[in-house]
Design goal:
The complex is a heterodimer of chains A (292) and B (231). With 292 residues, chain A is α+β, with helices and mostly antiparallel strands. Chain A has 10 helices and 4 strands. Chain B contains 8 helices and 10 strands. In chain B, strands 6-7-8-3-9-10 form a 6-stranded mixed beta sheet, sandwiched between helices. In chain B, a hairpin with a 2-residue loop joins strand 9 and strand 10. The radius of gyration of chain B is 17 Å and the shape is globular. The chains are: A alpha+beta (292), B alpha/beta (231). The structure holds adenosine-5'-triphosphate (ATP) and magnesium ion (MG).
């Protein structure tokens, strides 16, 4: 191969590797963005569920009004309690009778239901651990007979989110590895195709920074293009999902969506610049002639 | 003491390695400002290795070299570019960039070594081209120049940052005898006019006979200082 055609060959190869690198950064960013949107939706959804999660506190038959009032005051003073409603056993009967459509008190001859408090808590408090301590606290009170809430709803949300996180994290890590390798290769190829120029710069006393600058500038652009591609993809996916599942739109938080976009921009630039920096530093430390 | 400070190159107890192979050992010599010195020896004797060590391409493993006020034993990677700006390097395999004019070649070096002011750059380029006798060739492409003219531009490039010392590795290697002599006259003249020391590796005994100067000879893993005598 003549020197000119060899040069062209390496340049072409470098360009192809750069394009593949852009695609793979875009994919990493898209996946991360998609995951963030999912997390956002899941968070809004779980907040919604959590804040509407009812904790039922059943009181003993013989609980006295004085003690009930004291407990009510105690609970209302708690910062995590969002809402607290007292349901007397008579009110409970009325609700249940309406639900069942038949007068079961008449049938039984007595009222089997208990008075209770219906309590909702703030979202950050609606997790299994916190609720467990509340439960213990309440059960220590003599007038409380039972504390009931739907534990598995919370666990289900948290578990699903963790599974999705694991899968996406695994995928992203793999793609990140591929990206770094691709950037490394494209840098090696383009340094090799420019080795005479770089050798000249080194011999006349150009600083490493001077030699690196144009490569870093290119990788900045490469990062920008990747971010643009990834955000466009994500935008497309969100449009489709909005059309299919309008309820999802309700769960969107515009500020949070903006943060996701900014996050993608920063991560894209960082991935591109940092891996370019490391690749070029590595090759400049060794002799350019030893590249192949 | 004063002589040590005066020397452009001062070499004490130095071993030269290529990777793990010892090429030259126990070198001791000085080169004074403005001095013209030949480095001779058979192929593979270690001339290029010694020059590479001097400009920081090969690490100094043992001994001390002080070159252009820089102690190589303490030289950090980051400081290599600053050392090289104080040296002029003229090599056969360190040619001009073929894709740009003479002027652009020289400007490229100035920009790479931290020059910013356009007018100053143009002025310096004109000065060095004048020095090498090519004042009108600045917008020529390298392939439009003869071999001798190209080598003059290479020397002009080495002079850009006003070096105290020129390191030349077979600068006449590719040239016909007449052109070689022209280049030698130029180098010797610059050495005199600019008081620039020159350390030049060469095989060309005809040149040494025609332009006698101090000789350092690489032989049997040592460097012998032959002074001005040619054996
Ligand atoms: N890059 C390298 N890696 C390992 N060994 C090398 C390398 N370059 C040169 N050598 C070895 O170092 C020794 C000295 O080589 P050097 O190039 O310094 O000789 P030289 O005197 O310049 O020869 P020439 O006159 O042919 O240019 C030789 O034995 C050579 O084989
Ligand atoms: Mg040599």
């Amino acid at each position: 191969m003549s020197e000119q055609s060899q040069l062209k060959y390496f340049r072409r190869k470098a360009r192809r590797t750069t394009i593949t690198a852009v695609i793979s950064i875009s994919l990493v960013l898209f996946l991360l963005g998609l995951f963030s949107v999912l997390v956002m939706n899941a968070k809004m959804l779980s907040d919604y569920v959590k804040e509407h999660l009812e904790v039922q506190i059943y009181l003993n038959e013989e609980a006295e009004l004085k003690d009930i009032k004291t407990l009510e005051r105690q609970l209302q003073a708690m910062p995590y309690v969002k809402q607290l409603d007292f349901v007397s056993k008579e009110a409970a009967v009325a609700v249940l009778t309406e639900d069942l459509g038949e007068d079961f008190v008449d049938f039984l001859g007595y009222n089997p239901l208990l008075s209770s408090f219906n309590m909702t808590v703030t979202a950050d408090f609606a997790n299994t651990d916190s609720l467990k301590t509340v439960k213990e606290f309440l059960l220590a009170n003599a007038i409380v007979k039972e504390v009931y809430y739907q534990e598995n709803v919370l666990d289900l949300i948290n578990k699903n989110l963790r599974t999705i996180a694991l899968v996406i994290a695994g995928f992203s890590a793999l793609l990140l590895l591929i990206t770094v390798t691709l950037i490394n290769n494209s840098i090696r190829l383009s340094l090799y195709s420019q080795r005479f120029l770089i050798k000249s710069m080194q011999l006349v006393g150009a600083t490493a920074w001077f030699i690196k600058k144009p490569y870093l500038f290119k990788s900045f652009l490469q990062g920008l293009v990747s971010v643009f591609v990834a955000i466009s993809l994500l935008y497309g996916v969100m449009q489709v999902s909005d059309a299919q599942l309008p309820e999802l739109k309700e769960l969107r938080n515009d500020t949070f969506t903006l943060y996701i976009g900014i996050g993608m921009l920063l991560i894209g630039l960082v991935i591109s610049l940092v891996s370019t920096w490391f690749a070029i530093s590595k090759y400049l430390r060794n002799k350019i002639d030893d590249l192949y | 003491m004063s002589e040590l400070q005066q020397a452009v190159i001062s070499i004490k107890g130095v071993d030269i390695y290529q990777k793990t192979t010892l090429v030259l050992q126990e070198l001791n010599f000085d080169i004074r400002p403005g001095e013209f010195v030949y480095l001779i020896g058979k192929t593979g004797a270690g001339k290029s290795s010694l020059l590479k060590t001097l400009y920081g391409e090969l690490p100094l493993m043992k001994g001390e070299i002080i070159i252009a006020e820089t102690a190589l034993s303490k030289l950090k990677r980051k400081e290599i570019p600053l050392l090289r700006r104080k040296l002029g390097i003229v090599f056969q395999d360190f040619q001009l960039l073929t894709d740009r004019s003479v002027h652009e070649n020289l400007k490229f070096v100035l920009r790479a070594t931290g020059w910013k002011d356009k007018a100053e750059m143009t002025k310096r380029i004109e000065e060095v081209l004048e020095l090498v006798g090519l004042p009108t060739k600045d917008f020529k492409m390298p392939h439009e120049l003869s071999g001798g003219e190209q080598q003059r531009v290479v020397i002009a490039r080495a002079l850009l940052n006003k070096p105290e010392l020129i390191l030349a590795d077979e600068p006449t290697g590719n040239l016909d005898p007449d052109t070689s002599q022209e280049i030698m006259k130029l180098l010797i003249n610059i050495s005199k006019v600019e008081n620039t020391a020159v350390l030049m590796a060469t095989h060309d005994y005809m040149i040494i006979e025609r332009f006698p100067a101090r000789l350092l000879k690489c032989e049997g893993g040592k460097v012998l200082d032959l002074g001005g005598i040619l054996f």
